[in-house]
């Protein structure tokens, strides 16, 4: 009987554990690659992300069909402005930001989906563990994000909005 109660206690304790969202680094830099062969579109960019001051800088190279463009874009969500400099023509456009700042890490209200491994799991230092989360912001925008574990560094993410469609970062 004692064994049964002990076993039941262990099962209840294990089942009661809920994975809590991790805290992603508030500032980081990375590279982004996106493309669509059917639309003959490709984009390569360097991104500097600052969650603390709600700003993002993207230096990108875009190929659309036979046109190639180079941009340096600064999103200043804390003041609601976007500065986009065409690096070829040196023309700078300043526009108002209509979309709110979105964390590219794991929001505290995110729901844990699963843990996985990227790379050769059986070989030391040739893989890393990831965790996937999903959720919805108050304005209805849905998101999914994958981060490394235990460091919580963003690997990829997707936002689904009614106004601007799908935004994917990797």
Automatic annotation (TrEMBL):
Q: Which InterPro entries match?
A: Ependymin (IPR001299)
Top-level lineage group: Eukaryota
Which Gene Ontology BP terms does the record give?
Answer: cell-matrix adhesion
Record-level Gene Ontology MF annotations? calcium ion binding
Where does the signal sequence lie?
Answer: 1-16
Q: Which GO terms describe its cellular component?
A: extracellular region; lysosome
Which UniProt keyword terms apply here? Signal
User: Would you tell me the protein name for this molecule?
Assistant: Mammalian ependymin-related protein 1
Q: What is the lineage of its organism?
A: Eukaryota, Metazoa, Spiralia, Lophotrochozoa, Mollusca
């Amino acid at each position: 009987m004692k064994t049964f109660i002990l076993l039941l206690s262990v099962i209840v304790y294990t089942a009661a554990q809920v994975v809590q969202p991790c805290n992603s680094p508030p500032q980081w830099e990375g590279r982004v690659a996106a493309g669509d062969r059917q639309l003959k579109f490709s984009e390569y960019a360097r991104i500097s992300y600052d969650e603390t001051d709600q700003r993002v800088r993207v230096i990108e190279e875009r190929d659309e069909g036979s046109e190639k463009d180079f941009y340096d874009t600064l999103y200043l969500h804390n003041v609601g402005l976007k500065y986009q400099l065409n690096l070829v023509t040196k023309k700078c456009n300043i526009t108002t930001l209509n979309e709110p700042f979105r964390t590219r890490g794991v929001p505290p209200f995110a729901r844990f989906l699963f843990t996985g491994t990227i790379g050769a799991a059986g070989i030391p230092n040739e893989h890393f563990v990831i965790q996937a989360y999903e959720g919805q912001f108050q304005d209805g925008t849905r998101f999914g994000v994958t981060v490394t574990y235990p460091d919580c560094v963003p690997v990829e993410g997707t936002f689904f909005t009614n106004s601007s469609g799908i935004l994917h970062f990797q």
